[in-house]
Amino acid sequence: RQLAQDLRSGLALGQIRPFYQVQVDARSFRVNGVEALARWHHPTRGILAPAHFLSIASSNGLVAELDDVVLKAVLSDMKSSASPLKGIRVSVNLSADRLDDPELTAKLDGYDIPPGRLSFELIETIFLDSLSDQVRQNIQAIKSFGIDIEIDDLGSGHASLLGLLELRPDRVKIDRQLVTPILQSVPSCRLVGSLVDIARALDMEVIAEGVETLEHANVLAALGVHTLQGYAFGRPQSFADLSARLDQEI
Ligand code: G
Ligand code: G
Ligand code: MN
Ligand code: NA
């Protein structure tokens, strides 16, 4: 209860801000995007990852507000002068709650969204039931704002091929659990290759998550994965640290 109260005020006070994890082109290893990941800068407990507050947010109806707070902070970071985010794509996680929210279009209307620069990561569970009319409508709205659609954690849950065919996302992110074993297991490796083929059939780009070593990176590149994300290229970091890092790369 106390934590839910803290979270409510933390959201209002700007204590929840995004960290950023880089994504790199699989051939050049150059940064081509970042994923924004919520962090709670708690006054006494330090910086908390979503594992410490996402379920509290969820059980108290605060997830949509969390998504909102993070999106606003991302848009502000994108606009700040000399922002390292200027030339790259930024992916923001969007909860199933938010995707099903009748207010989403009005919210997006209220923001100054730079077309072609932003993606929303949707979790696979949106496919659990057949897509609701509200979800369909919101997805059209998202696309009309020039925001890309990505399916997060592909392979761990429920994305049906029919769902992908209907939704036509711009990108899919292959779940870390499928990526980790590719060096030890030939079937795992082939499976990732097959997912790349499926993605290509639907004109989707592929991001591999949880890329922890350069050996993984090289195999994934050979399998045709477009973009890599994982500790091999960097952990989620503050906007200031990201700025410093990207300044160095140029
Ligand atoms: O940063 P970390 O890997 O601990 O994040 C764990 C999970 O929390 C991510 O996989 C993501 O699904 C979720 N998450 C992170 N930031 C956000 C956010 O802003 N909104 C929502 N809905 N989920 C988030
Ligand atoms: O949105 P999603 O749940 O996919 O968020 C990615 C999560 O995975 C974040 O919590 C991030 O901290 C974590 N993560 C990112 N890269 C790696 C990695 O290389 N290895 C592991 N174990 N976790 C990672
Ligand atoms: Mn994600
Ligand atoms: Na993910």
TrEMBL record:
<feature type="domain" description="EAL">
    <location>
        <begin position="1"/>
        <end position="250"/>
    </location>
</feature>
<protein>
    <submittedName>
        <fullName>Kinase/esterase protein</fullName>
    </submittedName>
</protein>
